[in-house]
Specification:
It is a single chain. The chain is 71% helix and 4% strand. It is mainly alpha-helical. The protein has one domain. The two termini are 25 Å apart. The mean pLDDT is 94.
Length: 140
């Protein structure tokens, strides 16, 4: 007898939309030189990751205003890799925010731009580096 494990699933567009919002907020923050945008992105990702999708503002925007307008049923994916990626985003955006707070602005922008680049890659090309790291670590 085989024991089947139920894996929690997520609409594939939810993590992509969250990543697009992070990329947008952090990218605009960099362009206009307003680092609190990084803190706002961190708060949005942290609320979603640790409070669950019912608390994540980006997920709520997607579920309320975008998903109902899509004609097809959503494709799903295993939720663990995107959750791991969100955890990394919380760590790095939190670290960038801390760097800004202590006055290390250049270092804060370097970390922020790394997150922005990875979030843009995930949102546009569906290449989630955090998800790949999760798969590599868990396969050992």
């Amino acid at each position: 007898m085989t024991d089947t494990v139920r894996r929690p699933l997520v609409d594939v567009n939810v993590p992509r939309f969250n990543q697009a919002m992070v990329a947008l907020l952090t990218g605009v923050g960099f362009v206009v030189g307003w680092w609190p945008a990084v803190l706002i992105a961190w708060a949005g990702v942290a609320l979603n990751r640790f409070g669950g999708p019912d608390w994540g503002p980006f997920t709520l925007i997607y579920r309320r205003w975008i998903r109902p307008r899509l004609a097809t049923e959503p494709d799903t994916e295993w939720a663990a890799p995107p959750r791991f990626s969100q955890s990394l985003a919380v760590i790095f955006l939190g670290g960038a925010s801390a760097l800004f707070i202590v006055g290390w602005t250049a270092a804060g922008w370097v970390v922020t731009l790394l997150v922005t680049a990875l979030a843009t890659l995930a949102a546009t090309a569906r290449l989630c580096v955090g998800c790949i790291l999760y798969e590599r670590v868990m396969s050992r």
